[in-house]
Amino acid sequence: MQVNLFDFWPRILEATHETLLMVSIALVLATLIGLPLGVALVVTRDNGLMENKIVFNVLNGVVNIFRSIPFIILLVAILPLTRLLVGTSIGTAAATVPLVLFSGPYIARLIESSLLDVNKGVIEAAQSMGATNWQIIYRVLLPEALSTIALNLTIASIGLVGASAMAGFVGGGGLGDLAISYGYQRFETDIMIVTVILLIIIVQAFQAVGNYLSKKLRRL
């Protein structure tokens, strides 16, 4: 039975809200994981502020393992963990768990890249003034890298939008689920087109906000 697009708009708006909710929660939680992990990767590496080869190699290995697993496989592989944490394996809450585990290590790499771009002379100047390692991290490294961190988190958020759409294959909710359930399985082309347009709008909005924040946070 053909779906009337006009009557279907409440469901489309609900799916849009689910996508934004999934991406927002996953981005916050993944950043809480990725930020300290990225900092640890920078300060424990060779010639880092707290050089520790064992810690670096362990963290580096863990990040590489998680980053090498395609999202759709991770999504299915951790279904028991997802059910344990949220009590279900379908819906937006269930989709958030693999989104966080998928994005946390990715954000760690982005944070690592941002911090490694900080001018070494600024760090050396702080050390010459007697700043402790923790003071350098919080008052030099992170503030100096804020602009690029904002851009990199924008990249991560856009990746999360795409991953949230893939979660629709296992009933993850959101626009991806809508596109698969109606646009693909029921051949509702107009619904597929609308969901694609909405995903493009969301991505453009995230990019615009990220560019604005990066510009505001850039140090002269």
Automatic annotation (TrEMBL):
Give the range the annotation lists for the signal sequence: none
Q: Which SUPFAM superfamilies match?
A: MetI-like
Tell me, which GO biological process terms does this entry list? D-methionine transmembrane transport
Name one cellular component (GO) term.
plasma membrane
Ordered alphabetically, the record's keywords are: Cell membrane, Membrane, Transmembrane, Transmembrane helix, Transport
Q: Which InterPro entries match?
A: AA_ABC_Transporter_Permease, MetI-like, MetI-like_sf
Q: Where in the cell is it found?
A: Cell membrane
Q: Report the transmembrane regions from the record.
A: 20-43, 55-78, 84-108, 149-171, 191-213
Q: How does it sit in the membrane?
A: Multi-pass membrane protein
UniProt xrefs under Pfam families: BPD_transp_1 (PF00528)
ABC transmembrane type-1 domain: from which residue to which, for each copy? 16-210
Similarity comment: Belongs to the binding-protein-dependent transport system permease family. CysTW subfamily.
Q: What is this protein called?
A: ABC transporter permease
